[in-house]
Design a protein that fits this description.
Elements lengths: L2 E2 L1 E9 L4 H14 L3 E7 L8 E9 L10 E6 L5 H6 L1 E10 L14 E5 L1 H8 L3 H20 L3 H11 L7 H18 L6 E2 L10 E4 H11 L4 E4 L6 H14 L11 E4 L3 H13 L4 E5 L1 H6 L1 H10 L3 E7 L16 H5 L9 E3 L4 H18 L2 E7 H5 L1 E4 L18 H5 L47 H19 L6 E3 L7 E5 L3 H14 L5 E4 L2 E2 L3 H8 L3 E6 L5 H10 L6 E5 L8 H18 L1
Helix pairs in contact: 1-4, 1-5, 3-4, 4-6, 7-8, 7-13, 17-20
Length: 603
Amino acid sequence: MNKTNDFVVRFANVNGTGSASANYLFAKAIFRMGIYVTPKNIFPSNIQGLPTWYEVRVSEKGYLGRREGIDLMVSVNPQSMKNDVASVRTGGYFLYDSTKPLHPEYIRPDINYIGVPLMEMCIREYTDPRQRQLFKNIIYVGALCALLDIEFQVLEDLLSEQFAGKEKLIPPNVKALKLGVQYIQDHFAYPLDIHLERRDLIGDKIMMEGNAACGLGAVYAGATVAAWYPITPSTSVVEGFGEYARKLRVDPLTGKNNFAIVQAEDELAAIGMVIGANWNGARSFTATSGPGLSLMNEFLGLAYFAEIPAVLIDVQRTGPSTGMPTRTQQSDVLSAAYASHGDTKHVLLFPSTPKECFEMTADSFDLAEGLHTPVILMTDLDLGMNDHVSEPLVWDDTRTLKRGKVYTAQELDKIDRYGRYLDVDNDGIAYRTYPGTHKSKGAFFTRGTSRDEYATYTEEGPAYVRNMDRLAKKWNTAKTMVPGPEITLDGAPKPMAMLFFGTSTYSAEEARELLAAEGMHLDAIRIKSFPFNKTVEDFMNSHDKIFVIEQNRDGQMRSLLINELNLNPQKLIPVLNYDGMPITADNIFNQINNDLKVAELVR
């Protein structure tokens, strides 16, 4: 096989051995050679000792989703070696530490073996046990440099950047790279038929984690308060916010921080602090995952009913309960949309790239304050914790913060009686005030109990109904404010379609191309937000069959569409993946192809 710039490499390591930085060095080098690359860090939820994998897809065509099958396995973990050998494609390669002979049960006649005595080389070259472990990882990167034809200068440049300020670490790392290169040159034919050739495909694109992009988006949005409780995989959102805020939010004259980060005792306290800060006029947010979202339900209901802005970034993981905390899913869709008891609905945004994480985080604050309600940004572990090739982050410096309907002291002077829940503009959105705006007007009780238009407590049914109807009207107004869907039409009358959102996007778009190559043409719609606006409704009604692609067992987005748009369930065909790994184009293609073949046979 000749697969230039089109293959998958997987690294099988032991968690806690320092392999992550070496594997990232490999992926970043390919990116620097102008080639699209998609790395996935697959790690256990314990701290140290269990198997961990790092999967890198290289794609000249720019496909950014996962692909089935491994072309080259770099296996340095005996615990997982049996499964690692089995996962290699026929004709593929298995690189292993040949310090000890390979067990006969790991021998397959249909794949190629590349033995490099990694530990033997490290014992010979290094005396410190920790150095032996760390440099073993760098040596196999050097071996791959020769095998795959990675430009050595690119690796050297990356090491210089990584150890800037710690220059004494650069020479030993370069030495380890050269050891790997030399061993391959002395013992194997190189490069392999799977290899790299420099391209100029990347342009000005960047590689970035979605969590970091969310943290930066919050800074640019004007957030000044982050309250949180650590939980995988959302922790690095607030860590990113803190890192960027310390660079961009420190008063140059006093040296004081213009932001506050509070680690609460639990998720309940965190969302409570966020609501309090937003009520007081600050822009505040928190980040969590499924278990934290469950704990936050009651406070989210308070913010919805009392109409207090709040921003929550939900980095979804595999559930229920603890589930697989270091695996990805899109499994909080329904729990986020209807969080809390009673008739409650929340605005959701679904980013697909780091750029959209940055932009939609900023948009979340404008929407939350514009609608006086919580807004939940729905990312996931794959988008949040893995590096993705993305369009660069761009900020319009003329953009101003949209604070929504807030009365000033001058406006309050013109009002006889302020009503916090009066719908003066007939759009369902009342005017709020910041505490202390006026010496005698604009004060009100914030309560989670029923009240009238003037925030006065009442349990009279008609007053409650008026308030709930106004909230429903505000929900319809929200449909005009949230981001619309992205639609791609094939052109046939009453065609079939596929629907996707978030990180399913990469593989769904590739699967659509694979289907078209087989003569199966589908329109496509990418959902970016909830509530669904009229464009979504019209698209759904104009198609007879829609494949709904999502990463959960129960088809949660499908249920949401049926419930909110009153659609015929039979026209929405679920295409699901819930094994904790990002869905692949092959998986989507096979599910849709099989369904269409069955439908043709029935016909």
